[in-house]
Write a structure and sequence with these properties.
Keywords: Membrane, Transmembrane, Transmembrane helix. The protein is built from 13 helices and no strands. With 309 residues, it is mostly helical. α7 crosses α8.
Length: 309
C-alpha cells in the first residue's frame, strides 16, 4: 500500500479517536463531565460556519483543514452556502463526538447491572441515591425527585424508545437512565443501541443545527450590532468583536501576515483561560470524588471493625 494512503488512514484514525475521546470525557462522569462540546466541538462548528459564509464554499484545502481553515482559490457564487452543506462538512466530527458520549454512559449501566447480578452494594453515591429513590418513590414531593422518577418510569416501562427519548435531548439525568437499565437488567444492545442513535444522530443534529444557525452570517452581524447598541459601553465592547471577526476573515484569505488586531488577542486570551480553568476544575473534581470514595471506604471499614469487637 502506498505510504501516502497509510498516512492518510492514520491521520483519519487519530482524528476519529480525538473526537471520540472528547465525547467520552464529556459524559463519563467521575465527579463531573468536561464540557467538551462548549470548549471544542461547538467552536469548531462555529469556525466552519463563519468560514463557509466568508468563502462561499466548504471545500477547504486538506491539509491544513481541519487544523486550520483557509478559503479555496476558486471563486464561488454568492449565496451558494446552505445549512445542509455545513451540516455535511462537520458530520464526521460531530458523530464521532456523539459516539464518544454514548460510550461514556456505559459505566453507570455496567456498575448497576453487576450490582444487581451479584447482590453486592457498590460504593457509588448515584446508585445509592437510586435505591433510596425506589424505596421512597410514593412519598417523593420535590421537583428533582419527581423528575428522576419520571425518567426511571419512562425507561423502565417504554424500554428502547424511552431510552431513545432520554438520549435525544440535553438531559442531565441520563446517568439515572443508565443505572435504571442496569438495575432492571435491560439487554446491553437495547440500552447502547438507543443511546447511540439518540446521542450520535438525533441529539447531535439538533446541537449542530443550533450552532450553525446561531453563527450564520446575518445572525452574527445582528449580534455585533446589538452589542454596539448597548448604552454607554456598547461601542467599546463592539470594537474587539469587530476586530476579531475581521482578523478571521484575513486569515481565511491568507492575509494574517498584515498583523493581528489587539481585539483578537484579548478574546483569544479569554477563551484560552476559560479552557484552562474548566480543565483544572474537571481534574480537581475527579481527585475530590476519588478522595471522598476512599474516605467513605475507610469509614465503613472502621465501623465494621467496631461492630465485630
Amino acid at each position: 500500500m502506498d505510504l501516502k494512503y497509510v498516512q492518510r488512514i492514520e491521520k483519519q484514525f487519530l482524528l476519529y479517536a480525538y473526537w471520540i475521546g472528547l465525547g467520552i470525557l464529556s459524559s463519563v462522569g467521575l465527579g463531573t463531565g468536561l464540557h467538551t462540546f462548549l470548549l471544542y466541538l461547538g467552536p469548531h462548528i462555529a469556525s466552519v460556519t463563519l468560514a463557509a459564509y466568508e468563502c462561499n464554499s466548504v471545500n477547504f484545502p486538506e491539509p491544513p483543514y481541519p487544523d486550520q481553515i483557509i478559503c479555496p482559490h476558486e471563486e464561488n457564487i454568492e449565496g451558494a452556502i446552505s445549512l445542509w452543506s455545513i451540516i455535511s462538512k462537520v458530520r464526521i466530527e460531530a458523530c464521532m463526538w456523539g459516539i464518544g458520549t454514548a460510550i461514556g454512559e456505559l459505566p453507570p449501566y455496567f456498575m448497576a447491572r453487576a450490582a444487581r447480578l451479584s447482590g453486592a452494594e457498590p460504593d457509588d453515591e448515584e446508585y445509592q441515591e437510586f435505591e433510596e429513590m425506589l424505596e421512597h418513590a410514593e412519598t417523593a414531593q420535590d421537583f428533582a425527585s419527581r423528575a428522576k422518577l419520571a425518567v426511571q418510569n419512562l425507561v423502565q416501562k417504554v424500554g428502547f424508545f424511552g431510552i431513545l427519548a432520554c438520549a435525544s435531548i440535553p438531559n442531565p439525568l441520563f446517568d439515572l437512565a443508565g443505572i435504571t437499565c442496569g438495575h432492571f437488567l435491560v439487554p446491553f444492545w437495547t440500552f447502547f443501541g438507543a443511546t447511540l442513535i439518540g446521542k450520535a444522530i438525533i441529539k447531535m443534529h439538533i446541537q449542530k443545527i443550533f450552532v450553525i444557525i446561531t453563527f450564520s452570517k446575518h445572525i452574527v452581524e445582528q449580534m455585533v450590532a446589538f452589542i454596539g447598541a448597548v448604552p454607554g459601553i456598547g461601542p467599546s465592547l463592539q470594537k474587539p468583536f469587530q476586530e476579531y471577526l475581521e482578523a478571521q476573515r484575513q486569515k481565511l484569505h491568507h492575509k494574517s501576515e498584515m498583523g493581528t488586531p489587539q481585539g483578537e488577542n484579548w478574546l483569544s486570551w479569554m477563551f484560552e483561560k476559560l479552557v484552562v480553568v474548566m480543565v483544572c476544575y474537571f481534574i480537581l473534581s475527579i481527585i475530590n470524588s476519588m478522595a471522598q470514595s476512599y474516605a467513605k471506604r475507610i469509614q465503613q471499614r472502621l465501623n465494621s471493625e467496631e461492630k465485630t469487637k
